[in-house]
């Protein structure tokens, strides 16, 4: 995941949590305020009803008169329940006796409920009302079903003396209820609106943060793009330093300092390799020349001849190594000169076959493909092909095939062999300097581990590409791609 996406997700999540917390807090406060107002209104309405309907001389009591108080409280539902027990027995009522008798109901409640129905509290709620006593009202909520809908009620219940005309005074429960269905619907709609507003706000913030982060990270992308173009061949290049006075500017400056140190280190390495190779060439050549002279012009004993032969062969091997190091040092310095000339593909490969015939032994070298003209450095391309074919022969191949094809704007050479193949873990390292697939074989055969590095250097100088395809036991294919430029060759 990119830094831009991580920043977007992080800040969007944080802002979303903050916004959600604010929305939930606002919704909770609004709900609490309205609920408090409804309860306050219910208390005030009950007090008004008691003033109209109380027992003469007894505050907070109720007289059953079937209508007087309900005219005043016409916007509420009302109900009066009575316990036909002495007041002193109320705290000792059993679970079965907690439900009182329903004696009076407001006209609008009677019209709303079906016949024989009433506001029914649970026995635990009646028990709580009794525990609250006369001084503390009890609040609850309930749903009642009408003919076409379900109404949600906010209910206040209070224990108080209730006078039954011509019968006596008993303890009873007066209930008042307000229909808050519409308020609940409004809150449900508000909850939905707040949810979608919060969701849209989070999405909007995410899009905004994504855009803003792109602008903030723009200098960093410039630094990244410039850094990606820098290789070991152009260490003199530098990344742009944005004038942002922040961490990005500091990072670009640090990268340039590191590049400067790397360039200096590579220069020292190149100079050392080049100077050492030049200094070693003369004495190594002299050693090989004198060993050859002694073999030709003297009569050494067999043991002496063997030693001189070893000296001569090793000096030649060392000379080849020095020459390879010099070529790589020139390539690292960017001074690989290409002498591009028109070449004919089949004719070039036929010349290769004739030149390689002395080293083929029992192996076969076949040439195929199509004839076409292309531009390349003949000497360098011959060096590439000889190196690749020699590697195939050293690996034990008995048949090597060279093919050339013109594929659109590319020249495609394929070197195919029937050798033992190369394991997959080696393929990505074959062009590394001094890398050997089989350490012992390469040393015995005189390989330095630099041949394929030189091959890649030459192909890179042609602006081409080279890679291996191989499986153990199925041989190896080497692909060389060069850019094609149409050439008009006189017959």
From TrEMBL:
Keywords carried by this UniProt record: Kinase, Membrane, Phosphoprotein, Transferase, Transmembrane, Transmembrane helix, Two-component regulatory system
Catalyzed reactions per annotation: ATP + protein L-histidine = ADP + protein N-phospho-L-histidine
Record keyword Iron present: no
All residue ranges annotated as the HAMP domain in the record: 214-267
EC annotation from Swiss-Prot or TrEMBL: 2.7.13.3
InterPro entries: HAMP_dom, HATPase_C_sf, HATPase_dom, His_kinase_dom, HisK_dim/P_dom, HisK_dim/P_sf, Sig_transdc_His_kin-like_C, TCS_sensor_his_kinase
Main location: membrane
Annotated Pfam families: HAMP, HATPase_c, HisKA
SUPFAM superfamilies: ATPase domain of HSP90 chaperone/DNA topoisomerase II/histidine kinase, HAMP domain-like, Homodimeric domain of signal transducing histidine kinase
Membrane-spanning segments: 7-30, 193-212
Protein's name in the database: histidine kinase
Lineage: Bacteria, Thermotogati, Deinococcota, Deinococci, Deinococcales
């Amino acid at each position: 995941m990119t830094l831009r996406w991580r920043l977007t997700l992080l800040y969007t999540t944080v802002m979303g949590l903050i916004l959600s917390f604010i929305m939930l807090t606002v919704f909770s406060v609004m709900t609490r305020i309205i609920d408090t107002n409804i309860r306050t209104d219910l208390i005030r309405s009950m007090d008004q009803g008691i003033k109209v309907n109380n027992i003469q001389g007894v505050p907070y009591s109720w007289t059953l008169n079937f209508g007087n108080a309900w005219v005043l409280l016409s916007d509420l539902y009302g109900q009066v329940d009575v316990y036909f027990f002495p007041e002193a027995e109320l705290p000792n009522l059993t679970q079965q006796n907690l439900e009182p008798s329903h004696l009076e109901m407001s006209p609008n409640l009677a019209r709303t409920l079906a016949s024989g129905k009433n506001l029914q509290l649970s026995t635990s709620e009646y028990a709580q009302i009794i525990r609250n006593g006369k001084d503390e009202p009890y609040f609850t909520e309930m749903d009642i079903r009408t003919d076409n809908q379900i109404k949600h009620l906010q209910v206040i219940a209070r224990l108080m003396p209730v006078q039954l005309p011509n019968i006596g005074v008993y303890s009873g429960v007066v209930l008042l209820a307000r229909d808050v269905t519409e308020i609940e619907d409004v809150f449900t709609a508000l909850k939905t609106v707040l949810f979608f507003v919060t969701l849209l706000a989070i999405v909007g913030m995410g899009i905004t943060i994504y855009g803003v982060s792109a602008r903030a990270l723009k200098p960093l992308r410039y630094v990244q793009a410039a850094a990606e173009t820098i290789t070991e061949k152009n260490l003199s290049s530098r990344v742009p330093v944005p004038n942002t006075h922040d961490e990005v500017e500091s990072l670009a400056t640090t990268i340039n300092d590191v590049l400067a140190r790397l360039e200096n280190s590579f220069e020292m390495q190149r100079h050392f390799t080049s100077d050492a190779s030049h200094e070693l060439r003369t004495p190594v050549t002299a050693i090989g020349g004198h060993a050859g002279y002694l073999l030709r012009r003297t009569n050494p004993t067999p043991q002496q001849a063997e030693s001189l032969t070893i000296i001569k062969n090793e000096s030649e091997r060392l000379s080849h190594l020095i020459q390879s190091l010099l070529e790589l040092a020139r390539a690292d310095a960017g001074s690989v000169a290409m002498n591009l000339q028109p070449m004919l593909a089949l004719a070039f490969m036929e010349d290769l076959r004739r030149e390689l015939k002395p080293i083929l032994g029992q192996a076969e070298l076949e040439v195929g493909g199509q004839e076409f003209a292309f531009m390349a450095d003949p000497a360098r391309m011959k060096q590439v092909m000889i190196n690749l074919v020699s590697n195939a022969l050293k690996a034990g191949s008995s048949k090597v095939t060279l093919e050339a094809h013109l594929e659109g704007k590319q020249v495609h050479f394929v070197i195919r062999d029937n050798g033992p193949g190369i394991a997959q873990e080696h393929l990505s390292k074959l062009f590394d300097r001094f890398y050997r697939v089989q350490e012992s074989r390469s040393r015995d055969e005189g390989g330095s581990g630099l041949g394929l590095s030189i091959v890649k250097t030459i192909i890179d100088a042609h602006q081409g590409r080279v890679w291996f395809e191989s499986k153990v036991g199925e041989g190896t294919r080497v692909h060389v791609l060069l850019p094609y430029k149409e050439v008009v060759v006189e017959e």
